[in-house]
Amino acid sequence: MPSLDRLTLRHRRWLISYENAATEEAVAAFEDKAGPILTRLRKMERKLSEGQPLTERQITQARRDRARLQKLMREARDDVRDTLQQRLQRAAETELRVSTRNISGALPEGLTGRAPGVDLQTLILNPTAGRSWASRIDAGMMPTFQSIDSALLAAINRGASMDRAARLVSDALTASERQKFHLKRLVRTEIQRVSNEAAQATYSQNRDVIRAVRYLATLDSRVCEVCRPFHREVFPLDESGNHEGPTIPQHPNCRCFYAPVTRSLSEILEARE
Q1: Closest CA to 141 of 20, 26, 30, 22
Q2: Which of 94, 113, 139, 154 could link 103 by a cystine bridge, Cβ 3.0 to 4.6 Å?
Q3: Torsion over CA of 241, 243, 248 and 251, rounded to 10 degrees?
Q4: pLDDT per residue over 187-196, tens digit each?
Q5: How many whole angstroms separate alpha carbon 88 and alpha carbon 82?
Q6: How far apart are CA 102 and CA 126, in angstroms?
Q7: Per-residue confidence at 128, pLDDT binned at 50, 70, 90?
Q8: What is the rounded CA–CA span in Å between residue 93 and residue 98?
Q9: pTM score of the predicted model
């Protein structure tokens, strides 16, 4: 039978390229709304850092930006949410299809893997560490936009010191870069989560074929000491199709996964009779 490890690894290589594209799309959704304001803040930062006061035009624009900031915040949040929802949907659907197909490819002729009956929306919205990805997007964006608002307010306030205005503008730009970092981490982690949950649902559905799962860490420069000790450890499936291995992802940006371990040919044939 073909190696399920090899088939699973091939799909995981695709998943990494998929998550890379998803992170860029999520950041682009954020920058599409916040980008013009951030560009103007960078120009303000350069001017203020040189000890030059803002022009009347810049102050007027800052007033306009501040007046529409809340609307932009909602739009940015909604666009990022929609982007991630669509990306997670495709990741889950692809995982269910590929995992079932890979199991079928490892079975004797005439036998096929069973696709699990999974409620995709429930799977996609499952919380990580007690919090949904939607709430984490909201929690991350709020301080970013508050920081931008403070910078714009300082730009508008003619009585504010130049040093203070420069610091607040710099803080806002730093917060926006931090927001993009957090978005990338969130997208990567959630795509890995839904893919692993979809794969586990498929293994559970085919437990007459799959006897265990093997933990595979992505062994590159990014692998951490939390994940490394579990590499290639095997965890048997119980009667319900569950196992006692650690929940993946174990941490943000975790790229570990479980590969299925098949039963012997005689066991499979006996179970499928």
Answers
A1: 30
A2: 113
A3: 150
A4: 999 999 999 9
A5: 10
A6: 25
A7: confident
A8: 9
A9: 0.90
Closest CA to 99 of 12, 215, 16, 36: 12
Tokens matching residue 17: 């390229």
Domain residue ranges of the chain, discontinuous segments joined by +: 4-209
Number of Cβ atoms within 10 Å of the Cβ of 267: 13
Rounded distance between C-alpha atoms, residue 46 and residue 148, angstroms? 16
Question: Which helix (DSSP H) or strand (DSSP E) does residue 211 occupy?
Answer: strand 210-216
Give the CA distances from residue 60 to residues 63, 64, 155, in Å, rounded to whole numbers and listed in that order. Answer: 5, 7, 9
Which alpha helices (H) appear in 126-264, and where do they start and end? 133-156, 162-205
Which residue, 253, 128, 243, 126, is CA-closest to 182?
253
Kind and range of the H or E run holding 234: strand 234-236
Q: Which residues pair with 261 in a beta bridge?
A: 212
Q: Are 195 and 15 in contact (CB under 8 A)?
A: yes
Q: Is the pLDDT of residue 241 over 60?
A: yes
Tokens 């978005």 found at: 183
Rounded distance, CA 58 to CA 60, Å?
5
Task: Read off the pLDDT of residues 180-217 as tens digits, 9 standing for 90 and up.
Answer: 999 999 999 999 999 999 999 999 999 988 999 999 98
Tokens representing 174?
């730093």
Cα 65 to Cα 59: distance, rounded to the nearest angstrom: 10
One-letter amino acid at 38 equals: L
Per the CB < 8 A criterion, the answer to whether 41 and 173 are in contact is: yes
CB neighbour list of residue 270: distance below 8 Å, 6 or more residues apart: none
Residues 1-20 have a mean pLDDT of 84
